[in-house]
């Protein structure tokens, strides 16, 4: 998944990764400037910025090394991600919203039904029992046995 | 480790519930290992939140059994469908699958089982004796030594994969950076919290692990969906003969030693051990030309090594608090969440827990001897479960596990972010294991460095006066610069 064909047209993936890491380090360093200052006496001369900045410096150095290595390396382009990867990622990102809106058990049902259908699984004799069985299993194991209190969702609050 | 610990552990392990948990852990481990895409690291990460509902000993025993069995389970699909269920089984596929194609699947699986059990058992015995010895040495360690040891552990990330040395080191640093989120313990200043109160306690590592190991793999599966696998039928389980076992016995013993040693090295895990075990089996073989075409030593070597690495990896994890592998890092995190302090003092404070882990790993090895020899045919059918039905269940477990830990939606968001971020990292060649290692070690690294700097009055040169720390630093430097240095020397000599 990580490597594609040779003779890519754009910059080497390592160069891109190196630059992103440098930008991340710069952003991180800027964020450390916003940390509350404390007297040297209290911090015992080890301020709260000391360790994060040290690590950010190492990441930046690594980023430079990676970018430089990418410039010297033969051209390479990453293989393309299938649209299904982006759709699945979108689906995963939507799940927490669904939990907050519909509640956990309804979301578990939707995930167990929706993801197989999204991944082109059309054998409903397998999909439907999975979609019905998963919320039941989650309820029995986690809510009843382990006493986990799952969010019931806005819908339950409004109509409950 | 005193006798009272042994007595207490014996009492715990006569409890049918604990035995049952270890059996369940072993079964789940073999199932997870046998399912392509699911690894023991992922399984331990996914089940860690639920194990926290148990007492420490059953909880860690369950995870340890899962770890051992998950490493073995990967060999089933490696042999039958040429798709290693877990990365440590990759080397097993080199000769296991050709054996299966020749109609010797049962012989390959039987050899893998016996090699795994032997390797695993030898390493647990080494763990039983080596861990307390190492812990005794570690009693004399102060913050500078611990900092140097953690640096050594992180530097070993560079040797996990020759191609991605720098990326592994950067990954380790990213893990360290994530570990700085929250309140600084020395000054009480909040760092990288962006005004979110739930982040004041820091980013809990379990949602990050679940995201990096499971959600990222789910997205990766979406990329590979629809690939056809050819399953080799296992009509009859023809076990290896006594002559077979006699023939590979030396390989099994050698690989068990190699695997245990590799496992003890911080950060090195079963995958590296398996590759070295395979190469050494080939190097010592009288017929190296048969390797890759179905050599029985090519199955025994990596299988003994990768299982031996599980016990080996627990040695630094328990004795020093420095994980020996990615899965051991997750177990280390589990110990921390249970309120235990991994390291030499664990041997004084929780001897029963340590005996518990030893017993659990030994029992797991004995169990997968039975499972491997009798149940291989059943477990091989697991590879036929369509990903489109398997992964929704994994995704549900991810969300439930991430939420169940603290019953907080912030953890769920952290998991989703880690999963998507993990996909981007994986695409650019960054592995999850170094990030996990950095994240788990983050607290130790920062605290021990801060304490060292206070002891040394802000002078880095203070480390020069600590010989043990210096040795660790030199080893770390050797790990990072060793291979490039050798290459440079060779190039200079060639000129």
Would you mind describing this structure in some detail?
The complex is a heterodimer of chains A (160) and B (495). With 160 residues, chain A is mostly helical. Chain A is built from 7 helices and no strands. Chain A is 69% helix and 0% strand. Chain B has 495 residues and is mainly α. A two-stranded antiparallel sheet of chain B has the order 1-2. Chains A and B meet through α1, α3, α4, α5 and α6 of A and α9, β2, α10, α18 and α19 of B.
Q: Top keywords for this entry?
A:
heterodimer, A: mainly alpha, 0% strand, B: 495 residues, mainly alpha, 21 helices, 74% helix
Strand order of the largest sheet of chain B: 1-2
How many strand segments of chain A? Answer: 0
User: Uncertain regions of chain B: pLDDT < 50 for 5+ in a row?
Assistant: none
- Let me know the average pLDDT of chain A: 87
Number of helices of chain B: 21
* Number of distinct helices of chain A: 7
Radius of gyration of chain A: 24 Å
Shape of chain B: globular
How far apart, in Å, are the first and last alpha carbons of chain A?
A: 46 Å
Mean pLDDT across every amino acid position of chain B: 83
Oligomer: heterodimer
Strand content of chain A: under 5%
In short:
Chain A is mainly α and 160 residues long. Chain A is built from seven helices and no strands.
Break the fold down into its secondary structure elements and pairings.
The complex is a heterodimer of chains A (160) and B (495).
Chain A: H1 13-32, H2 40-43, H3 50-72, H4 83-102, H5 104-118, H6 124-145, H7 153-159
Chain B: H1 3-13, H2 16-34, H3 40-51, H4 56-81, H5 90-101, H6 105-138, H7 143-155, H8 157-160, H9 165-179, E1 182-183, E2 190-191, H10 205-224, H11 242-264, H12 270-284, H13 297-319, H14 326-337, H15 344-349, H16 351-374, H17 376-380, H18 387-406, H19 409-427, H20 432-455, H21 467-494
Antiparallel strand pairs in B: 1-2
